[in-house]
Design brief:
alpha+beta; 4-stranded antiparallel beta sheet; about 25% strand; globular
Length: about 120
């Protein structure tokens, strides 16, 4: 299955899976979910488009990649089929490595729970 850009013969469009430092500065609606645990950030996986080397976030009408730009940890080109299961698996593996490599004092389960609280706060 081709994605919309291919079907419409629009060149230089990539779907990007980015991991960024989600914090209260670039994602204010998460509230105190991180500071309650003395965490400066949690790596969050997010998808957006890269068109001619410029990034565009169409997640919501108020989304703006510029808010995340300086907090990006990595970018990976993916296919539209990888947006669901692959993205989640990649994100979980990244978090496990982050916890281990940065001596984070919480288990993966606790970090995922804190992350879920952030996401819940965002949806309010």
């Amino acid at each position: 299955m081709k994605h919309v850009a291919d079907l419409n013969q629009i060149p230089n469009v990539e779907l990007i899976l980015g991991v960024y430092k989600m914090n209260s500065a670039n994602t204010p609606k998460i509230g105190n979910a991180l500071s309650d645990y003395q965490l400066d950030y949690i790596p969050e996986a997010h998808c957006y488009l890269k068109i001619n080397d410029e990034r565009f976030d169409y997640t919501s009408p108020t989304s703006d990649f510029k808010r995340l730009k300086n907090d990006m940890l990595l970018e990976k080109t993916i296919t539209h089929q990888q947006v669901a299961e692959f993205k989640i698996d990649f994100h979980k593996a990244y978090l496990k490595d982050w916890i281990k490599n940065n001596n984070i004092p919480y288990s993966f389960g606790k970090i995922w729970q804190i992350r879920e609280q952030c996401i819940e706060n965002l949806s309010r």
